[in-house]
TrEMBL record:
The species this protein was found in: Lithocarpus litseifolius
Record has NADP as a keyword: no
One GO biological process term: protein localization to membrane
Predominant place of localization: membrane
Protein name: Transmembrane 9 superfamily member
Higher taxonomy: Eukaryota, Viridiplantae, Streptophyta, Embryophyta, Tracheophyta
GO cellular component: endosome membrane; Golgi membrane
Superkingdom assignment: Eukaryota
Compartments where located: Endosome membrane; Golgi apparatus membrane
Length: 146
């Protein structure tokens, strides 16, 4: 499979796990509304962790079966690519929900969303990397050397 294609497709599921909560979070930050569903946010975070782990373990297994042992960065980017969809959704939210007309305010919005997207990239990429690291340690610890 093409690495760019698999990286971009791999980011759809983790983004889908937090898509609904992202709307409420952006509304509470940019439209001065209160966010009070922290229990549901915690459940969505747990679903995000499980989704990132699963979406990177499967390609890691396929890469190891094809004897491609350079899985480190590709799988970090696979789970971290949900950031692309997060930033695209932030741009969609800007043009549909917010009524910002000043260029400086728009620049401030996109700057903050770029920082939030980068933090989300590091979070999801790290979750995917550690899941694959744990998976490879687990499967290679059971190999018997004769």
């Amino acid at each position: 499979m093409n690495p760019v294609f698999s990286i971009l497709i791999g980011g759809i599921l983790p983004f889908g796990a937090v898509f609904v909560e992202l709307f409420f979070i952006l509304t509470s930050i940019w439209l001065q509304q209160f966010y009070y569903i922290f229990g549901f946010l915690f459940i969505a975070f747990l679903i995000l962790i499980v989704t990132c782990a699963q979406i990177t373990i499967v390609p890691c297994y396929f890469q190891l079966c094809s004897e491609d042992y350079l899985w480190w960065w590709m799988l970090y980017l696979t789970s971290g690519s949900s950031t692309v969809y997060l930033f695209l959704y932030a741009a969609f939210y800007f043009f549909t929900k917010l009524e910002i007309t000043k260029p400086v305010s728009g620049l401030l919005y996109f700057g903050y969303m770029l920082i939030a997207s980068y933090a989300f990239f590091v979070l999801t990429g790290t979750i995917g990397f550690y899941a694959c690291f744990w998976f490879t340690r687990l499967i290679y610890s059971s190999v018997k050397i004769d």
